[in-house]
Design brief:
transmembrane helix; OPT; two-stranded antiparallel sheet; two-stranded antiparallel ribbon; protein transport; globular; mainly alpha
């Protein structure tokens, strides 16, 4: 399998004396070891288990639900701000440890019997243990994940400026069919849980599906719970984490409050202050980013995830695609005025008309039916995109279909063999010590649990779109189609994510399909995307958490229950936060009416809104077909289908050249199309840090890398998150900002990089071009 090679191309097993001794804690003497085929897993994940430890305790429920509520509120709150911040479950993972130990030290051990039931429980079943900690972190993961369905409410209320009653919005996000507060956005997620049940044997039990991002949390769990002896002159992992966390926390006051401009430094713009072309070349946010960099961990990891948790081959594929697009394809296309691109900014996620101005969507909307007014559209203008935005869509087409070809060629035979063994109930499967320990010590989740959730969720989804006056504009047959698309793509995209830490999005495909089949309906388009994309995305999130539980030896039924409850709690809290902000912040998301410096710019939702214009209101027929400006983008489907074939043929012809199998065309293509909202400075910073640690440090200091790299990533994330929250609630929420000076702007000071470069286009703030 393509994912079975060690991610840095380094073969061989790694056993220590302690590693062999530890086997007796989980396996019988003489039982086969068969550790993971992935070296990073062997270096990180323990092969021990104590099945007697309590997992789903009173402490788990209290701290888990609290963490879920905390992260759901903060992430939804910060998601509407220009300095959008994603607070990961790592923050909760750190905070709950002392709280768990405090509860273990103070709560009574007396068992409490539930009235009318035979059940009883103790609030304090003993010392706070690792398995409780893992389940609490799974709760926190539910709160940290986003909910695309809430973007529908934001788009209607904040961007389209249409009135919507609170009950109409609530019924969009919640239904009353199962319980008084059962979120419809949770339906999207729970629908995906059904898909997860179908593929868990391949994507969780298989040792080749190793989910690299989980190793960060595994390393942190070990640092927080393992008892270590500090070597002379050295540090334990917990001491190293504390040192990096405090340093990251203290430093982030600079980019978050005192000197935000340090997040993107573009030197060419400082030299050529009055020239458009040098600023387009040098701007890290709105240009090619040559010479730009950021001294801020959120610049490195904020958009593309931590490079320390991404395999080296995935980083190299991503960066190769990025360099080909940004430094070859994009300059050629822009300066040759392809698609009239010089009328608009080189890099922008907004939509434009033929005069270079922002597209006036209210002009072409029928207020009563909330669909397109074709007469006004024909008399106004076709819709235009920046050249980057156009190619991003093209590469999205290519990367998605290339993932199917890639998985079919490289992994198809192995998947089929494993599927046959699974279907036949064969015990002769490709397993490792972790899978055998899980099967030996715990009952698996019955398949009918997953199928029941899928069936109930589908029924609730159907009720949501058909009821309440058809406010979602989506017909019943579209729900069936969306579920089918999600089911088809879950396995190939799951294999790519499980081996590369990169997820291919199917959002563009869902938008394209419903845009052709049911044009002119913006809410139908975004609802179809939510059902088709989110159910797949949540299936993969569910499987990733299951793999974390697999590594940490958590009972699968406890994992299932925590995931389901966490989904419902997080969805409810995020809806309440969304409605509160949309109702209380005046002109939220409307940058033309917000006061200068207001943070409520909704960067993520603005992309969602523009996508609803492109795919829903106007539709792909008038943009990506002969009636539009970007019909040539459809060739990228053919490019994507064919791209993996030469690599596969070469790897078959030259099997001794292992590096050929590390050329991953879906990741390579997605590297070309990954811009927006990430910008060149984010790619350059992410790639530099990732290559330094996962190549140079890995090669020269493998012992240090194995012990500290994932802990370094977790500590950097946690320091940034804690300082950002503290700065907001102590200072920025009270309108107390840093000293007024040049570096206080969260910008790279390249204003001319956004300007058009053809004569006759007049844009405020840009010099006239003659």
């Amino acid at each position: 399998m393509a994912g079975s090679l060690p991610d840095n191309g380094v073969p061989g097993h790694h056993y220590s004396k302690q590693h062999d001794e530890d086997l007796h804690n989980g396996l019988k003497p003489g039982e086969e070891v068969n550790d993971s085929p992935i070296e990073q897993v062997r270096l990180t994940v323990p092969i021990t288990d104590d099945p007697t430890l309590p997992a789903l305790t009173f402490r788990t429920w209290v701290l888990g639900i609290s963490s879920c509520v905390f992260l759901a509120f903060l992430n939804q709150f910060f998601g509407y701000r220009s300095n959008a911040l994603s607070i990961t479950s790592v923050s909760a993972q750190i905070l709950v440890l002392p709280l768990g130990k405090l509860m273990a030290a103070s709560l009574p051990e007396t068992r409490i019997k539930l009235p009318f039931f035979r059940w009883s429980f103790s609030m304090n079943p003993g010392p706070f243990n690792l398995k409780e900690h893992v389940l609490i972190t799974i709760f926190a993961n539910c709160g940290a994940g986003g909910i695309l369905a809430l973007g529908i409410v934001t788009a209607v209320k904040a961007f389209y400026h249409r009135k919507i009653h609170i009950m109409a919005a609530l019924l969009l996000v919640q239904t009353t069919q199962v319980s008084p507060l059962f979120p419809s956005s949770a339906v999207f997620k729970l629908l995906g849980y059904g898909w997860a049940g179908m593929f868990r044997k391949i994507l969780v039990d298989s040792p080749h599906m190793w989910w690299p991002s989980n190793l960060v949390q595994v390393s942190l769990f070990r640092a927080l719970h393992d008892k270590e002896k500090r070597s002379s002159g050295g540090q334990t992992r917990l001491q190293f984490f504390t040192l990096v966390f405090v340093s990251s926390f203290a430093y982030y006051i600079v980019p978050s409050y005192l000197f935000p401009s340090i997040s993107t430094l573009s030197f060419m713009c400082w030299i050529w202050k009055n020239s458009i072309t040098p600023q387009q070349i040098g701007s890290g946010l709105n240009g090619l980013g040559i010479g730009s960099f950021g001294l801020d961990w959120s610049t490195v990891a904020g958009f593309l995830g931590s490079p320390l948790a991404t395999p080296l081959f995935a980083i190299l594929n991503t960066m190769a695609g990025f360099f080909l697009f940004v430094y070859v394809i994009l300059p050629i296309a822009y300066w040759n005025n392809a698609f009239s691109s010089r009328r608009f900014p080189m890099i922008s996620q907004q939509t434009f008309d033929s005069s270079g101005q922002l597209y006036n969507i209210t002009r072409i909307i029928n207020e009563r039916e909330f669909d397109i007014n074709l007469g006004e559209y024909e008399s106004y203008s076709k819709l235009y995109l920046s050249v980057t935005f156009a190619f991003v869509y093209g590469f999205s087409f290519a990367s998605l279909v290339s993932s199917i070809t890639h998985v079919a060629l490289f992994d198809g035979k192995s998947i089929w063999e494993l599927w046959k063994k699974t279907s036949a109930g064969s015990k002769d499967q490709d397993t490792d010590v972790h899978t055998r320990l899980m099967k030996k010590n715990y009952e698996s989740v019955p398949q009918w649990w997953f199928l029941a959730i899928a069936a109930v969720s589908f029924a609730l989804s159907l009720f949501t779109i058909e009821g309440f006056g058809g406010q979602l504009q989506l017909p019943w047959w579209a729900l069936l189609l969306a579920c089918g698309i999600s089911l088809i793509f879950t396995l190939p995209i799951g294999i790519i994510q499980a081996t590369t830490n990169q997820q291919m999005g199917i959002n563009v495909i869902t938008e394209l399909i419903i845009g052709y089949m049911y044009p002119g309906k913006p809410l139908a388009n975004v609802a179809f995307k939510a059902y088709g994309y989110i159910s797949m995305s949540q299936a993969l999130s569910f499987l990733a958490d299951f793999k974390l539980g697999h590594y940490m030896k958590i009972p699968p039924k406890s994992m299932f229950l925590v995931q389901t409850v966490g989904t419902i709690v997080a969805s409810t809290v995020r809806f309440a936060t969304t409605w509160w902000l949309l109702s209380s912040v005046q002109n939220i998301c409307d940058t033309t009416k917000l006061p200068k410096g207001s943070p409520w710019t909704c960067p993520g939702d603005s992309i969602f809104y523009n996508a609803s214009i492109i795919w829903g209101v106007i539709g792909p027929l008038r943009i990506f077909n002969v009636k539009g400006n970007y019909a040539k983008m459809n060739w990228f489907f053919m490019i994507g289908i064919l791209a993996p074939i030469p690599v596969w043929l070469l790897s078959r012809k030259y099997p001794e050249k292992k590096w050929l199998r590390l050329i991953h065309m879906p990741i390579f293509i997605s590297g070309m199309g990954g811009l927006l909202p990430a910008k060149p400075v984010h790619y350059l910073s992410w790639g530099a840090v990732g290559i330094f640690f996962n190549y140079y440090v890995y090669k020269r200091f493998k012992g240090w890398w194995a012990r500290h790299t994932y802990i370094l990533s977790a500590a950097m994330d946690a320091g940034v998150a804690f300082m950002a929250v503290m700065v907001y609630f102590t200072l920025q929420s009270k309108n107390i900002y840093g000293p007024q000076w040049w570096g206080l702007e969260a910008d790279d000071h390249c204003p001319l990089a956004k300007c058009p470069t053809v004569p006759g286009i007049v844009v405020p703030g840009c010099p006239a071009v003659y």
